[in-house]
Amino acid sequence: MDCVREYDISHHSVLLRWKRNYLAFGTVIDQRGQSKPGGKTRGRPKKVDLNSLSKAELISIIKVYEDIKKTIAYLRVQRKNIKSSLN
Hints:
The protein has three helices and no strands. Helices cover 59% and strands 0% of the residues. The radius of gyration is 27 Å and the shape is elongated. The longest helix is centred in the last third of the chain and has 32 residues, at 55-86. The model has no long low-confidence stretch (mean pLDDT 83). By secondary structure, the chain is mainly alpha-helical.
């Protein structure tokens, strides 16, 4: 455990994990940033499960999304026109 203090490692279990990985895989495999298969998915879960909706409900949701996109595009053009008229 002198290595833990000497190299300022946060906990002795880190050193044990490094040793176990070294004995299992050697120095060839780098596992940083890789998730375990079948593990917990990251990110916020979707509020609406699209697979459980009927066809009519999906169509209505798509229409709402399209209306939102059209409104945003219109407002962008309107803001651009207002800025150009002020100059």
